[in-house]
Structures are given as C-alpha cells and as structure tokens.
Design a protein that fits this description.
- It is a single chain.
- The chain is an all-alpha fold and about 400 residues long.
- The protein has one domain (about 5-400): Growth Hormone, Chain: A (Up-down Bundle).
- About 80% of the residues lie in helices and about 0% in strands.
- It has helices spanning about 5-35, 40-65, 70-90, 100-125, 130, 140-165, 170-185, 205-215, 220-235, 240-250, 255-275, 285-305, 305-335, 340-370, 370-395.
- The radius of gyration is 20 Å and the shape is globular.
- About 55% of the residues are buried.
Length: about 400
C-alpha cells in the first residue's frame, strides 16, 4: 500500500484549514467584542450559548450523519456558518448604532446558531477521514488533520486580533465569511460519502443508544475523554485572556491575539515532535503526566504579571495538551466501526464542547465569585486534582499502549 495520501485527502485538509481558520477568528472576535461590550462574565455566557445547542443537537447529529451523505452535510454546514459570520458583521457595523445590551443579545443568538452548525460540521468531517485514506495511512492522516487544525487555530487567533486592530470588528467578520465559503468550495471537490451498513430503518433513539454504549463500554476511550473533559473544563483559560491582556498585562488587540494563540502554538510544536518521534510506549502514563503539567502551567499563568511569562505559560500548557489530543484521536479512529463513526464523533464533540464552551462559562462564573486571578489558579489546581482522581479511578489508563 502506498504511503502517499490521495488528492481527495488534501481537498479535505484545505477545506478543514479554511473553515477552522474562520471559526477561530470568529471565536476570537466574539470574545473580544463581548468583553468590551459587557464583561468577562458575559464572555462565559457566550460560551454557554454555544455549548448548550451544540450538545443537544449533537445527540441527533451523529445519527443523522451516519444515515446521510457526509459530504453534503459538510458543505451545507459551511454555507450556514458563513451566513452567521455575515450576520455578526452586519450587526457590528457602526451604521446600526445598537445599544450594547442589544448587540450582545444578537451576538449570543448568532453564537447559538453556530453551536448547532458545529454539532454537524465537526463529526461529519472527522467521520470522513477513514473513508478517504487506508487504515495503514490513518495515523499519518490523523497527524496531518491535527496539525491543520492547530495551524488554523493559531492563525485564526492571531489574525482575529490583528484584523480587529487594522480594519475593525465588522470587517474582520466579513473576512471570516470569505474564508469559510472558501472551505465550502474545497469541500465540494470531495467524493460523496454515503452511509455504511444497513441503518436506514434503525430508530433514532436506538441508534443514539448504540453510540453511547460503544463509548462507555470502551474503558480506555472513556477514561481518555473524561480526563480531557474535566481537565480542560476547569483549566481552560480562554475566557480570562481578554481581561488579563487588558488590565494586568496592558497589551492591545495584537498582543491579545497572540496570547490567545499561545496554547495552539505550543500544541503545534508538540504535534510536529510527535509526528517525527511518535510515542511508542506508555502513552497513557505520558498523557496523565502531561495533563498534570497543563494544570501547573495554568497556575503559573494566573500568578504571572509579565507578558512573556504569561505567553510562555500558555504555550507550555499547549505543549502538554496536545499529547491528550493525539492519544484520544488515535484511539477514536482506530477503534470505531465505520457504521458508528458519526455517532461516536458526535459524542466526542459533546466532551470537547463541554470542556471548551462549558469551561468558558465556568471561567466566567468563578471570575465573578473569586476574581479573575484566583479563578485561574483555582482552575489549574482543579486540573491537577482531576489527574489524581483519574489515576485512582482508571488504573488501566496508566498502562495504556497502542
């Protein structure tokens, strides 16, 4: 079997690159905009506004993806996301002169819609990889996919801050719309991906139950995604970055954009190292130690009053975080049957959204309760405690190898 990845895979990768680039830019702009219109607490509410519909819709999305052409789902998801970006751009125009409260309400409504769209787009894309490349090429394809996601994420965060500074919020949203429609053009080049197996008459609730049963009966997979869920839920620092950048580090939109990209830069470095020197043994033990390191870095970020130290703390946290991403992604792709890929990818998305968007909400709440810096330190300490709890609850995870 040739080690060369097919042309279709590269169309998939470019579609992924432009979509995630636009998506991350929108996230960066929304967080910045909501913070300056309202508060860190409302940034947390924005995370919740995306999390709730994404989780609810994901339960149905996985079943729908497994029963329909995944390519069409992907293309339409990109089109609808483009419309949301245009809506955000229009309401941000100075011409409308909306009151801050009204503007925040409209932003939250748009974010609610993007949460639903992401519940289809992400699982549809992830469930297509195994249908594009051979099993022998799968680990290589996963590494490229993860690298693309990280490169886009870094670029999106940095470009989001840069565009805010150069052209303003509304124009920045219009740029994201152009990027996402470009992703849709690349997705149109993919071959159709019809459903696998005889699922057309399978009742929805039975189909969803089968997906959950697979995940919860696979202890290694359950342990890995549970660890990622709770560690990032408490240790996520995204919601704090605008306030830290503005009031503690005293940096502008560009500094904010790079600070927001620091974790992704660290993750990309880690992924590149892992592609060159893949983990051969004790992947579970290394993952647990890295998640503990992630928590310690968040504590340092909460204690720092200097920009370069804050940046390096987040960058190092990203280095550690990428290990769990690689371990989880590899286990997910290698162990999921083709007929369950949409449902399992959706369940995984629920965990990811729970750790990111719900974590953003948790950050807003703890910030209001304790203050920003104590809330960051609390989150990092909780991530370390989660590792300790996982060490006790899932002893086989320490010995996980693949």
């Amino acid at each position: 079997m040739s080690d060369k990845l097919p042309k279709e895979f590269w169309n998939f990768i470019f579609a992924r690159l432009f979509f995630v680039l636009g998506l991350r830019m929108i996230t960066t702009i929304v967080i910045y905009q909501v913070f300056h219109l309202a508060s860190t607490y409302m940034v947390g509410i924005a995370g919740l506004a995306e999390f709730v519909p994404a989780v609810i819709a994901a339960l149905y999305a996985g079943h729908y993806i497994d029963k329909h052409n995944k390519k069409n789902i992907l293309v339409w998801s990109y089109v609808f996301y483009t419309l949301c970006a245009i809506a955000l751009a229009l309401i941000s125009l100075p011409y409308f002169s909306l009151a801050n409260t009204t503007q925040v309400t409209v932003i939250l409504s748009a974010v609610f819609c993007t949460g639903i769209i992401r519940s289809f787009a992400g699982p549809a894309a992830n469930s297509m990889i195994a249908a594009i490349v051979s099993r022998e090429q799968l680990q290589k394809a996963i590494s490229y996919n993860s690298s693309t996601w990280l490169i886009s994420s870094i670029g999106g965060h940095a470009m989001g801050g840069l565009l805010i500074a150069l052209v303003g919020i509304s124009s920045a949203y219009f740029v994201t719309a152009g990027l996402i429609i470009t992703a849709a053009i690349f997705a149109l080049q993919l071959k159709p991906k019809p459903p696998v197996g005889n699922q057309q008459n399978e009742p929805m609730f039975i189909a969803i139950k089968n997906g959950f049963s697979f995940v919860f009966n696979n202890k290694n997979l359950l342990g890995v995604i549970s660890l990622d869920l709770f560690a990032v839920l408490f240790g996520g620092a995204v919601a704090f970055i605008p306030e830290v950048a503005s009031t503690i580090l005293h940096t502008g939109p560009i500094g904010y954009g790079f600070l927001n990209a620091a974790m992704d830069i660290g993750s990309l470095i880690s992924i590149i190292v892992l592609v060159r020197y893949p983990m051969r043994k004790k992947q579970g033990l290394k993952m647990l130690l890295c998640v503990a390191g992630f928590g310690l870095c968040i504590i340092i970020f909460g204690l720092s009053k200097v920009y370069w130290l804050s940046f390096m703390a987040l960058l190092t946290a990203g280095l550690f975080d990428a290990v769990s991403v690689v371990v989880r992604g590899t286990i997910l792709q290698l162990n999921t049957p083709d007929e369950l890929r949409g449902r399992v990818a959706s369940i995984n998305l629920i965990f990811i959204n729970s750790s990111n968007e719900l974590g953003q909400f948790e950050s807003g709440v703890t910030s209001r309760m304790f203050g920003t810096l104590p809330a960051i330190i609390f989150g990092g300490a909780m991530s370390v405690l989660v590792v300790a709890a996982t060490w006790i609850k899932f002893p086989k995870l320490r010995k996980l190898e693949y």
